[in-house]
Protein: DNA repair protein RadA
Amino acid sequence: MATKVKSAFVCNDCGADYTKWQGQCTECHAWNTLSEIRLGSPARGGKTLRSGFAGAVDSAVKTLADIALDEVPRISTGTGELDLVLGGGLVPGSCVLLGGEPGAGKSTVLLQTLCKLAENHSALYVTGEESPQQIAMRANRLGLPTNKLEVMAETSVETVCAIAEQKRPKILVVDSIQVMHMEEVASAPGSVSQVRESAAMLVRFAKQSGTVLILVGHVTKDGSLAGPKVLEHMIDCSLMLEGSSDNHFRTLRSHKNRFGAVNELGVFAMTDKGLREVPNPSAIFLQRAEEISSGSVVMIIWEGTRPLLVELQALVDDSHLGNPRRVTVGLDQNRLSMLLAVLHRHGGISVGDQDVFVNVVGGVKVLETSADLALILAVISSFRDKTLPQDLVVFGEVGLAGEIRPVANGQERLREAAKHGFTRAIVPAGNVPKQPIKGMQVIGVRKVTEALDAASC
Structure:
């Protein structure tokens, strides 16, 4: 007797599922967005048949004491910056999602990495957006070894898993997840249901076979990863490659990593031979002009597991508009407005009738609060047209009461600044080291007014 196939209906916009079709999704209130998904057919004895590829997960229940704590060997990518962001290399059986703007260099960095890894490990590059000839042309242009890497143009997830089951590669790259599709899902590639089910099948294959799976993801116009949010929950590591077309530097940041530090930052430079790693990013971002103008200061931010020295620039000018502008590049605009209010209330300096522009040099996006004190000093330096010392570094968080709060890893930040030749530092009083740092004068401040006096602003 024929077995009835179970199905579900999933909203392509929000991912909500229903047992039967309806015209409107009750979760996001969108119309005609439900697509049918056929579920696994039941077998005899009430068990569900496994489909797609062979293999089964060992589901035996164990106690934590019975689980072996042997460290899983990592696979080095051959690029120090990429290994740093990944937490030390690729972990067998892990799933990595790489996203970024069009033209950022996602396919380039993966092709460079796969060509190197293929010399010692079996690797398969699955492309759904380009032909194998285009991949080969790019590899030859970049001067990469091409005799070991296997390439396949395919968009069917079932076919990819079947071939990967035969080839048994150690590294599998799928470029990109938005163009992959499953025959059982009755919706277009790139929809919420297709992306979710395709990623789930690929992740399940990677976990069962111990293959390193790298997925390439598209981004929306607001810069977030396209597709359902559950996609980021499925994978082990989420990376974002950032950079504009007018800047040859690219930053690779980890937003999620089960095997390493979150918010780790790797810096690359785009050249005619592809992406090249920048092992000392602070030296690149500190290429300042010979004559330092007002409004410029060097701050020390913490990215993942290491400090980074970055120049912060501010420009304060008379506003010809009724509502003065507040523009930030690389910083939170709302935090700038808050710090300007603190400066007025507790520093006695008002820039309410001035346009304020703030820029982090090099295209770096600062996500932590240690840039507060540097931002205030840069704004005052530009407002009063007084140049800050060239050998000065600043970091510290500013509270609403005008207090300067300490930040994490203060001594490591100061040691990094001393390596680059800085001799003065204005930091929170709680971050002043107990043992003096050779060749550096560290000034601890507790209030905004004390910081202005220390910087002679």
Summary: The chain has a mean pLDDT of 88. The chain is about 25% helix and 25% strand. The first strand starts at residue 7 and ends at 11. The radius of gyration is 26 Å.
